[in-house]
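quick one: s-citryldethia Coenzyme A bound model?
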Amino acid sequence: MPETITITDNRTGDSIEVPIDRGGVDAKEWGKLLPGVWFHDPAFGATSAAASGITELDGANGVLRYRGYPIEQLAEQSSYLEVAYLLIHGELPTAQEFEAWRYEITHHTFIHENVRKRFMEGFHHDAHPMGILVSTVAALSTFYPDAKDIEDRDLLMKQVVRLIAKMPTLAAGAYRHSAGMPFVYPDNSLDFAANFLSMMWKTAEPRYEANPVLARALDVLFILHADHEQNCSTTAMRTVGSAHADPYISTAAAASALYGPRHGGANEAVIRMLTEIGSIDNVAAYVEKVKRGEARLQGFGHRVYKNYDPRAKIIKRTAYEVFEVTGKSPMLDLALALEEVALSDDYFTSRKLYPNVDFYSGLIYQAMGFPMNMFTVLFAIPRTAGWLSHYTELLDQDSRIYRPRQIYTGEPARDYVPIVTR
Ligand code: SDX
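yep, here:
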C-alpha cells in the first residue's frame, strides 16, 4: 500500500498523488492542484508549521523526548544546564564541553546596572513579575546591538548564553522588586538552580545555602519545562524569529505568549482554582460546574497529550520529595481528590482530559515559598533554552517568514460614503 494520498479537484476532475512523509503531506504539492484554496486550520490543530529535530511528543502514548532522550531519563540523571546544552547543540556534552558551557553561563549571569536601576525599579511596586520579565528581556536587545547579526553563529551563541544565564537574574530581580527587597547579585560559586534560589531568598546572611533537596527539585522542574515542541510560545518564537528579529525580542514575544492562562499561566490558575474549591467536600460540586461548561479544570487537558502528561507523573513524584522538606501542601489532598474524581468521570476521560504539566507544579512552587505570580516566571526561565533551540533551528533551516493565508469573511467591495450622507 503506497504511503500517499490522492486529492481530486471535482471541479476539474484533476487529481494529484502526494506522498505521506514522516506523518505529513507537503502543502506545496497539493497547492499545485488547488491554487488559491487554503486548508483552514485557525489554531493549527491539524497543521505542521515546522520540521524539527529538537523534541518529539507522542500524545497518544504520553511520550516526551528531547533530541531522542526520554524525559524520564533526563529528569533522573541530567541537569538543567546539561539539557539546555543538549537542546541547543543537539548532543549531550562531553565533560570538557559541559565545563566550558557551565563556565560561560555562570559568567554571564550579571545584568547591566541600568536594567536593574532604571527598568526594574521603574515598575510599580505590585507589577506582575511576568510583565517585568517580558519588558526587561526585550530591553536587553538595546544593550546588545550586535544581537541583530543573527547570521554570525558565534555572535548568536553569545546571545543564547546571555539569555539562558540572565533569565534567573531577571526573574529573581522582578520578584525582589515586587517584594520590596534589595536586588541580590548572582553568586558564581553556585550552580544554576541554587544561584537562582540565592537571588530569590538571600537576606542578611553572607551566603545563601539552598536546601539541596529543593535545589535539585527545582532543577528537575527546569528540565521538565525546558522544551515542548511547537507549543504556543515556541510558535510565537518561531513566528517572530522568522522575521529575523533578534533573539532577545523573539524571546520576549515567546514569554508574552507563555503569560497567557491557557498556556504557561495555568500553574497559577490551578492554585486559584484549588483555593476557590477550598475543601474536598466541594470537589464534586466544582466538577459538576466544569461539566456544565461554567469553569475549566485548570491543569487538565492538552492539545497533544491525550494521555497522562509524562511530566505530570514526574512532578507528582517530585512533590512528595519537596514536601518531605517543606511539609505537605494542604492543597495536595485536594488536588489528588480532584484528579481522582475527574479521572473516574466520563466527561473528562471521553475528552481525554488528564493532568498536564501545570496541575502539580504550582503545589511545589507554593510549598517552596514562591508567590503565585512567580509561577509562570518559573516556567519561562527553563523554556528559554527550548525557545532558543527552535530559533537557532529555524535559522539553520533558512526558513521563510511565517505568513499564513486566510479565509476572508468580511464585506464585499463597496464604495466610500461621505460622513454627511451616512
Ligand atoms: C501548557 O502545547 C503545549 O505543549 C503546552 C505546554 C508546554 O509545555 O508548552 O504543555 C504547557 O500550556 C499546558 C496546558 C496548560 N493549560 C491548562 O491547563 C488550562 C486548562 N486547559 C485547557 O484550557 C485546554 O485543555 C488547553 C488549552 C490546554 C487545550 O485546549 P484545546 O486543545 O484547544 O482543547 P479544546 O479547548 O478544544 O477542548 C476540547 C474539549 C472541549 O469540550 P467540547 O467543546 O468538545 O465539549 O475539552 C474541553 C473543552 O471544553 N476541555 C476542558 C478542558 N480542556 C479542554 N474542559 C474542562 N477543563 C479543561 N481544562
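The first strand starts at residue 4 and ends at 9.
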